[in-house]
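Exercise: predict the structure of this protein bound to alpha-D-glucose-1-phosphate-6-vanadate.
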Amino acid sequence: MSIQTISTQPYTDQKPGTSGLRKKVRVFQQPNFLENFIQSIFNSLEGYQNQTLVVGGDGRYYNREAIQIILKMAAANGFGRVLVGLDGILSTPAASCVIRKNDAFGGIILSASHNPGGPEEDFGVKYNISNGGPAPANITDAIFAASQTITEYKLLDVSDIDLSRVASHSLGHMTVDVIDSVTDYGALMETLFDFGQIKQLLSGGQFRFCMDPLHAVTGPYATAIFERRLNAPAGTVVNGVPLEDFGGGHPDPNLVYAHDLVEIMFGEDAPDFGAASDGDGDRNMVLGKNFFVTPSDSLAILAANATLVPGYRGGLAGIARSMPTSQAPDRVAEKLGIDCYETPTGWKFFGNLLDADKATLCGEESFGTGSNHIREKDGLWAVLFWLNILAVKQQSVEDIVREHWRTYGRNYYSRHDYEGVESDRANTLITNLRQGLSAMPSKTFGSYTVDYADDFAYTDPVDGSVAEQQGIRIGFTDGSRIVFRLSGTGTSGATLRLYVESYEPDPAKHDQDTQVALADLISLADEIAQIKVLTGRDQPTVIT
Ligand code: VG1
Ligand code: CO
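Solution:
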């Protein structure tokens, strides 16, 4: 058993995006590509000798091979212990939980989240720090810088470890503990929610619930927690076995990709509550009987009802939402007399707010909700939160949402994605918008007058770090907004995201179809950004 030092050369394309490094599997399989990136992570860190590292992934194609490589590299680089999920499986929220619970130095999560999996699809690597959250920009910048000058990496020359049983192994001087993927996470959930009451709801025979993990990592967690621990009937969890290619689908919980669930929830004799989660288990979609809850509304409703749930009985310190997320949570914060922070897209921007106890609940419009219990968004947590509220209030999902709108007004909200656009065209569109910003204020478009127009910049209130160029915002005097930004998680071409929001206080006008309610703003967005002309697309690829 010896430490090998292997010569290598930099790859130029190892810059992490919104959430880690995401590439096609074939790119990761190039000689030394994964090894370079892992060694670059280690090279950019200090003080990890003999410390604990957590490793796990969403089970997608190449997960197991990557984990064996990472274990051998961690051992050769001097880590003392690695905790790895059984079969290499850890959901993103579970990894965050395990890092925090075991005082680990950090963690490596293997996932491309909601992107498809399989030999021709996507893979990803993300580094999380000791608070359990995604590495902030200064660390990901350092990793990228290290990847540009790398000359060698270290690997322990040993055979693979058996990840299929919970057991402890020695790898040189390092210990590898294969841990049950669900135990720590399940125990944490039990401290936050009223499991007794949820159990009564789920096992009473009256209330019907359907959970669809889309053949991704949440399957084992959902089955263990809902069906085994909370006595939900067998079959409550559908598509619950993680597959390397997610059954060929997009493990993305929205109305387009979670079609099985959508059919059930909008079909005849639909269950009372339905939910789906994404590839790595950090996203959630929540549905009532024939009713869709937007992620922005979901965050607002969880916040407004938080004191019904044991873990949040003491109230919230604050709320944080990403900039493109609707302003529905702001209205709840205002009523509660707490702050609502507006951050750039990506969970890494919530870490400091959570650590400093400035925010308790956080959320993004992209089906992400979470709290200070960990430092990642958490799909199953959101589902349990809703179940706890439903168990207490004994109302339907739709009634709860409509009651919320009556109290706070309704924020009509939609996101239009233009996927796979040529990068040059997408960049031109954003550059043009940027150049037009200064001339925008006070301009009128039909009944809309521009109140402000900027390229969103964020100063972290805790460490003062600044993030610029985080999305073009155009706000109108009636409170409506359109936002444009380019995705930082795609693996081919560019994805343009258009976010549109308007506010309707009048309950008599809360029954409109979202796309109809937003139609004027949507055509205005096209007029301002010339989306059709510049992307060459007539319509978005996905509307959520
Ligand atoms: C997208 C979402 C963003 C989310 C990120 C990671 O990023 O918009 O809100 O934090 O994915 O989510 P982008 O840059 O493509 O818009 V996940 O579930 O992929 O870890
Ligand atoms: Co995800």
